[in-house]
Amino acid sequence: MSSPDITAILENSRELDRIRKDQEEVLVEINKMHKKLQATPEVVEKPGDTSLARLKHLYTQAKDLSESEVTFYSALLSQLDALLPSGPPGQQRKRTDGNEQKRKRMKTDSDISRLSPSMRSQLEPCGNLKGEQVAARVTGDNSEKDEWFVVKVIHFHKDTKEFEVLDEEPGDEEEGSGQRKYHLPMSRIIPFPKRNEPSSVPVFPPGRQVLAVYPGTTALYKATVVSLQRKRKTDDYLLEFDDDEEDGKMPQRTVPFHRVVALPEGHRQ
């Protein structure tokens, strides 16, 4: 178990604490609005009163925070799953024939069915990511910098809890022009928000640091949220990417919400 892995878990735990504090503050405001409306319900009929609009805004905030809480719980579970040993220490490998392989697969399926609901709830969505694009860290834990790319999930191996992914963008001439495949643990994969479900996406407030796809590329970099631009068909984030200075200024770039994810804890750039 490496120090960066523990650091990431602790950072996500701290983020959960922050979300819960925000939830408490929103609930306090909601309760205040409830008491106000119960005491003076006629206030909503006055011209210019914004009580109902304010209450709707608070409910929306509470909903977004709850969904963010679920997202970070899922991330923590994925990180813990990736750190748990998959077999007894020192277990030796042996050659197996076709029947033994079949029995091994059956045993694996049986083991999965006996997992706790929380563990099983993490493995099942991973299997459903086949064919989907996700954010993947392709560099190892000992690398000087973290490199994140948009990749396509080919397969999720439940026995090893690893993703087989394809970087569909051709590499540089020095690296070879073909597409590259990687086998990566769950801790290096972040699913993107669903394009057709903008209402379920966690809202990152202005000033929050995120990981986002740089426009015109398939690479993800650290950025700071300027604002969330609500539209009829989709939502876009206005971001300032780190190290993106032009003529002494930081340009603000628009990125679709489904290409923005929470910044992984301990990110190195």
UniProtKB/TrEMBL annotation:
Location comes to:
Nucleus
A GO biological-process term: chromatin organization
Pfam families attached to this UniProt entry = SGF29_Tudor (PF07039)
Q: Where does the record place a coiled coil?
A: none
* Record-linked InterPro entries: SGF29 (IPR037802), SGF29_tudor-like_dom (IPR010750), Tudor_SGF29_rpt1 (IPR047288), Tudor_SGF29_rpt2 (IPR047287)
Q: Which UniProt keywords apply?
A: Chromatin regulator, Nucleus, Transcription, Transcription regulation
Q: Does the keyword Secreted apply?
A: no
- The SGF29 C-terminal domain sits at 124-269
What name does the UniProt record give this protein? SGF29 C-terminal domain-containing protein
Region Disordered: start and end of each range? 83-125
List the GO cellular component terms: nucleus; SAGA complex
Is-annotated flag, keyword Transcription regulation?
yes
UniProt biased composition (Basic and acidic residues): 94-112
**Provenance organism:** Tripterygium wilfordii
Quote the CDD domains the UniProt record gives.
Tudor_SGF29_rpt1, Tudor_SGF29_rpt2
